[in-house]
Fold:
Amino acid sequence: MIQNISTRRTFLKGSAAATATLSGGLMIGFAIPAGAQQTPKPTPYVLKPNAFIHIDADGKVAFQIPQEEMGQGVYTSLSQLLADELDVAFDQVTPLPAPPDDMIYGSPQRHRQSTGGSTSIRNFYTALRQVGASGRAMMVEAAARQWGVKPETLRTENGMVIDDAHGGRKLSYGALAPAAAKLDAPQNPTLKTDAQLKYIGKPMHRLDSPSKVNGSAQYGIDVRMDGLKVATLAASPVVGGKVDHVDDSKLKAMPGVQLVVLDDIVAVVATNFWAAKKGLDVVKITWDGGPNGHLDSKTLMAELRATAAKKGVTAAESGDADKALGKPGGPTRLDATYQVPFLAHAPMEPQNFTVHVKKDGTCEMWGGSQVQTTAWRAAATVLNIPPEKVTFHNFMLGGGFGRRLDVDMVVKATRIAQKVDGPVKVIWTREEDMQQDMYRPAYRNVMAATLTKDGMIDGWMHRIAGASVSARMSGKPPKDGLDKGSVDAATDNYYNAPNFRVEYIQAEPRAVNVGFWRGVAPNNTIFAIESLMDELAKKAGRDPVAFRLAHLDKTPRLKNALQIAARNAKWGEKMGPRIGKGVCAQWAFGTYIATICEAEVDTNGEVHVRKVHSVIDAGRIVNPDTLMAQVQGGITFGLTAALWGNITVEKGRVQQANFNNYRLMRINEAPDIQVEIVKSTEAPGGIGEPGCTAGPPSLVNAIAAATGVRLRELPIDRALLAGKSSV
Amino acid sequence: MVTLQINGQSQTIDATPDTPLLWALRDFLGLTGTKFGCGIAQCGACTVHMDGKAVRSCLLTIGSVGNRAITTIEAVGNTPNGAKVQKAWLDIEVVQCGYCQSGQIMSATALLNKTPHPQDADIDAAMAGNLCRCGTYTRIRQAIKNAAKA
Structure:
């Protein structure tokens, strides 16, 4: 059981029991100081087991997990990769968050610590197996030297090196670790064969679950220490706005609180959250919204529509799409536009960070981030000190979903902490979290397609208009006007249209900061593609599943998943009135997933999701149980957005503030979600996002089947559905 | 100063009576297993037991609790139903990020305290106040049924 899931430094400083665990014979230890290297430039991946594996004298194993645990199960799945190759008992393993260091803990592909885009297993599957295998080889070598035998005569089992040729004598990893840690790490260790794997591919129990069912798990918001103050804040409700005037006359009557007024932020600091909140509630703040202070959703969406009507830059092209499409109004041509709104992340743990700006010019910070090194550098930049002077204690996340790929919560907390004597925990209220988000961009898709006389796709054009998250984050416009992140999945042409073009046109909403959101661009592109596929099937007079299958000969893994999903969901069975089934087949994040949603629409237009069947081919799998959980959770996340998600703006201010007006799905609204995994030895695919992107299109297609009404905008508009039935 | 009965112990808290129980637990007593999610009793992350019944601690002031027994996630495992629910949660791996799960477990235990063999409608009614952004609902429903059978 994980008693302490904080950083190494806190761990070492922790309870006597915890310290004792690490005080025995260290060895394959954490020899690299946090932040020793920081320049992210691609170099060959160097295996450094010492940076990942710690084994103490009695055989307890701690792994520094480079990716952030935010519910997706990487503490467990990445431990499976390491433990299997290292050959240690899984119940001896404790996962710990790695400190910020791009060169050591960044992915081998990008040398950057970032947990997003469903990449943890894809990027680390081989790398961490190699680290574990390299560590195992060091143990064997250390034993061979001690015994004076050849290493190839030895074997390992559950943390022991065994010498069968000499009566099965044994040395434990704990005893060998001090000597092993001094050896050079083999750079090309032999990996286990599939048949030798003990943990990889098995539904191992999560290592973080015990602490999460008894309240002992520590998130950033749970940080406590002597002298800690707590603050809550109000940032300008308008992007780019400033504080105009602050009336703190009522606050002055409250003892023990401190007012902090910055350019665009007002905060109250107290000894506890409630005192800070009460204090902020009585401060009267007048904001100067600036140029964005008059903008509203109507204007922003009209601007998006106008931009989407223009030609974009070409993101992918094959054949001659213009020729195949002909002119609008052609007999086999279908034109359609699909639109999705701004969305908030709304993780259950509101944004927070704890920062201590110290008098000696250093800084210590505590909190959870999907981008450890970026967060660490962000605090240093605010303070104008080198990052090496900042110590970052990273924590598990109470939900990420892309929200914590941004570091605005670090910047705000550090700016407030500059005005505070001692450590301060800056906690956002739910309202602040909802109204100061980095929102999923609204997108508009302008699409056209034509059919051959045999009812097959001939021409296909897909133009995506929306904000570039990368441009907002980097401050630089997309190269040649093309934001590749916005067209993901749309450019893959997995239905193999012979004449194919995808365009992108940047449409920046002036009053809304945009961010990455679970499912990223395919949230939009798959919704558009799979909606258009259903409309094309109808135009061709074909069944939606059969129409897709006919186009998937060159994408056989998706074809196979769709065939299984149709069987599992009893596709084609007779349904009652106002009940329909809808399909989504997608290839994104390196994973194939086919989903069939069954929904009922009542006479008021209210939609009830009855059941979902998903079949996923994600290649090699590390933990099938977490994979199923991710698909179940992802579908729920996506359905929630389709049913209710909509962030709107008035006078530059986000209108939704809490769960009463930004609805999340509740248990009484949640469908049963059945997931089947296709066995595969292909390279691993991503699993965090595919379920999310499959939810909305499968739902709108089910609604179309139930009512005959095609919804081309999200969230679903119940007024269009009231009284409608296809039967 | 307000004195409360928390997890079987008498605790005196140096906070004003209008302080919500949530913040008294977290900031004054260090019982951080009870979570802040919304502050308006919409999400259930702050659920604790008062005399065995589920209550939202973010709106319950400490001045209004009196002598009634408060139980939090840190101690619910000492009750038979709490232990059964925690085990059921672990057996089928309900949790993902885990942030809402303290509240989910407190609500589920209170449900079993009142209704030892809940039907789906009972589960809907008792658990609809607890949001989970990770989408663990399918497993929560199953785990409650398993705990009831244990």
In short: The first strand of chain B starts at residue 2 and ends at 6. Chain B has six helices and five strands. Helices of chain B lie at 21-28, 73-76, 80-91, 101-114, 120-127, 137-149.
